[in-house]
Amino acid sequence: MVARLPTSSLFRASLARPSGSTTGKLLSRAGARSYQISAKPSEEKGKSSPLYKYKFLKEPATVGIVGCPFSGGQKRAGVDLAPNKLIEAGLVDQLSSLGWNVHYESQQSYIDIPYNPIPTSSPSAPSKTEGTVETQQDRGEVVQRLPDPDIGLMKKPRLVSAVNEKVAKQVGEIAEKGWLPLTLGGDHSLAMGTVAGTKSKYPDACLIWVDAHADINTPLTTESGNLHGCPVSFLLGLEGCDVAPFNEWLSPCLKPEEIVYIGLRDIDDGEKKILRENGIKAYTMHHVDKYGIGKVVEMALDYVNPNREKPVHLSFDVDALDPTVAPSTGTPVRGGLTFREGHYITEALAETGCLVSVDIMRIS
């Protein structure tokens, strides 16, 4: 039951190393370390198959984990550490105990992106003569092979685009196998890649976006220039999003009627205008308080997937949860979902049997 990921598997992850039928391999690559881990379910570990049948996935049910240690869509470091920390905390074993086959390979390929600033202490870092060296408050001394100046208001556009292009390819490849891609972020700019990858396999997939924020600013309306606030606009192809380098690989793949929000409570004025003009359905925390989470999830599914026959991509930003539940996020907003409300969303979506892709974003 991978739908329990945002709560029981992520927030309760133990510090135990993978065990049981889990196998791992350590690879060396240009001085860097790369991990491959796989696990199979068994009765001894818990369940031999998931609780629910998934309509669009091949059997045996398999999760392909995409760990993307990326924080370039915004200024704060920390979210880039989450994927490996979650794996170290025993996530692979926890998933296999829920009846899933699990495959994970750490992604050293992101280090190859020339716009990526890498700590000089890292064995993967280029020499200081190969790029520009600077000192960052959160990361210390870093070296970056190629500059990445602003394009208009957008900050780090080349880095964000290059990482998302790789993510889209990897998610698409996992989906093509009939597996469920589980992307561990990383900031929410990564949804450009995850949703594009899902849509390459399931063009009619709908998107459930659980978040405190709408992330639908455009390169023309963003106040900060940080692209973690813009992924939905790029997926929709809104005005100002047909811009290099994103348009070199990303085409609009999402329609306004294919997305629904749950948990919003911190929306920019420009985003409110975009939501209204495009007729995008959004259930805020006001709706959760008024109707209860069960009714809100039912209404959300009825809107984007009334017959429960379309694939569902769940993009879950942990800042949708109240900071008292999930303080480990860089963008906390008071008045969010409770532990049980967040858990219920994932349970209800799993129950449909329609899940084909899951993002867990913004753990810091």
UniProtKB/TrEMBL annotation:
Belongs to the arginase family. InterPro entries: Arginase (IPR014033), Ureohydrolase (IPR006035), Ureohydrolase_dom_sf (IPR023696), Ureohydrolase_Mn_BS (IPR020855). Mn(2+) binds at H188, D211, H213, D215, D317, D319. Coiled coil: none annotated. PANTHER family: ARGINASE. It catalyses: L-arginine + H2O = urea + L-ornithine. It comes from Kwoniella heveanensis BCC8398. This is Arginase. GO terms for molecular function: arginase activity; manganese ion binding. Its EC number is 3.5.3.1. Its cofactor is Mn(2+). PROSITE patterns: ARGINASE_1, ARGINASE_2. Keywords: Arginine metabolism, Hydrolase, Manganese, Metal-binding. It comes from the Eukaryota. One of its GO terms (cellular component) is cytosol. Pathway: Nitrogen metabolism; urea cycle; L-ornithine and urea from L-arginine: step 1/1.
